[in-house]
Amino acid sequence: MQLNIGLMRVFFYLSSCDTCKRIIKTLNLDASITQVDIKKNPLTASQLDELYLLTQSYEALFSKRAQLYKQRDLKNQPLEDTDYRSLLLEHYTFLRRPVLVYDKTIFIGNSSKVTEAAKVFLDEQ
Questions:
Q1: Pairing label, strands 34-37, 99-102
Q2: Scanning 42, 84, 120, 125, which has its CA 20 to 30 A from the CA of 73?
Q3: Could you give all domains of the chain from N- to C-terminal order, each with its CATH number?
Q4: pLDDT tens per residue across span 74-123
């Protein structure tokens, strides 16, 4: 799946995640937004790099709540942005989810503040 910054409307989520399912219902995503289950279709390097263009940080896309993060004790290791990129490409669970990209606007994570901001934004489109 090739993405193009400026024309991208995509929602990256995990289909087995109840929080992602709830957020999908809350946001009422229309047909112009491609929904990508990251377990079935993990992020490619080019997709991740395009997300980076919007965030300017791989760490912003990285979930420090992931089980693998805890299992590998990564909290006690100094990680650079390139390390976050490698981990994000290694396993889908490292992506902070969901991620909504609508043209050049990005919403990352499942906090109520982010979800509400995404909903308000989409309702205005």
A1: unpaired
A2: 42
A3: 9-124 (3.40.30.10)
A4: 988 899 999 999 999 999 999 999 999 998 899 999 999 999 999 999 99
Residue-wise pLDDT for 37-77, tens only, equals 999 999 999 999 999 999 999 999 999 999 999 999 998 88
Nearest to 12 by CA among 49, 40, 52, 31: 40
Of 118, 125, 121, nearest to 24 (Cα)?
118
Q: Cβ–Cβ contacts within 10 Å for residue 73, how many?
A: 8
DSSP states of the chain as a string? Answer: ----TTS-EEEEE-TT-HHHHHHHHHHT--TTSEEEETTTSPPPHHHHHHHHHHHS-SGGGB-TT-HHHHHTTGGGS---HHHHHHHHHH-GGGB-S-EEEETTEEEES--HHHHHHHHHHHHH-
What is the gyration radius of the CA atoms in the chain, in angstroms?
14
Output the six-digit token pair for 68. Answer: 């693998």
